[in-house]
């Protein structure tokens, strides 16, 4: 979309759009992306005020590329009003919640194109992250986003999904997500891989338990996720660390790339007492691209 360096997407920190104090604190922190929220964090009565506050905040901030906005869902009455208010300020991106499928992304693309053209913004330059599991219907369409306009990342949600299907809880007696919600996590990951975009893990509601956050973040990174949503500034450093390859991982990846480079045309090669084949090389190359090596 531009010649600027790729935006890091490890940590995505929500901040309510009707609180200057919380928006300011979020932007002053280490989050890769700050999500100013016009949806769940803002009451209906406060939405008009929040729209103006978010517009002014984005307009006056020099780091617009990392300041994104979560608008209200397309099945409600507020999305176009949200976009009309905030797009003149040229936010870094948009989060679209509670989608039903790819058609919602395509509708958003049309709306954004019109607002970009009206305000002198390059048409197509506003990227989108999509919450792809917050409605029951959306679960059947997580693999449909390949080539979808503007989409750079997919993420998932468990709370609204539980509401959508009438569940009393999304967790079992042991505190872990039930099968349906683990399925949502897997489908989001598979959908992102199919679309060739970044998979972003959902929030951890208990922002005080940073050790549990670390364990979970490291686990989903091993699974293939490349970032995570956050609801509190205290979570950001833990998330950034968990989704940043370590020096040992980088060195190992470089060694794998080097050994294949030294043996061109070989499909499998011995390494540290084992055998490496081409999928190992692919993963090593992907990790090195993550860190710009």
Structure write-up:
The model has no long low-confidence stretch (mean pLDDT 93). Helices cover 41% and strands 15% of the residues. It has 10 helices and 10 strands. It folds into 2 domains: 11-244, TIM Barrel (Alpha-Beta Barrel); 248-292, no CATH class. Strands 1-2-3-4-5-6-7-8 form an 8-stranded parallel beta barrel, surrounded by 5 helices. Helix 9 (247-261) crosses helix 10 (278-290). It has 293 residues and is an alpha/beta fold.
Short structural summary:
Belongs to the HpcH/HpaI aldolase family. This protein has 293 residues and is an alpha/beta fold. It is built from 10 helices and 10 strands.
Main attributes?
2 domains, 10 strands, lyase, TIM Barrel, 8-stranded parallel β-barrel, two-stranded antiparallel ribbon, 10 helices
Reconstruct the topology from this structure.
Elements: E1 11-16, H1 20-28, E2 33-37, H2 47-59, E3 67-70, H3 79-86, E4 93-96, H4 102-118, E5 128-131, E6 151-155, H5 159-165, H6 179-195, E7 198-201, H7 210-223, E8 227-230, H8 236-242, H9 247-261, E9 268-271, E10 274-277, H10 278-290
Parallel strand pairs: 1-2, 1-8, 2-3, 3-4, 4-5, 5-6, 6-7, 7-8
Antiparallel strand pairs: 9-10
Helix pairs in contact: 9-10
Domain HpcH/HpaI aldolase/citrate lyase: 10-233
Organism: Sphingomonas ginsenosidivorax
Binding site for substrate: 70, 134
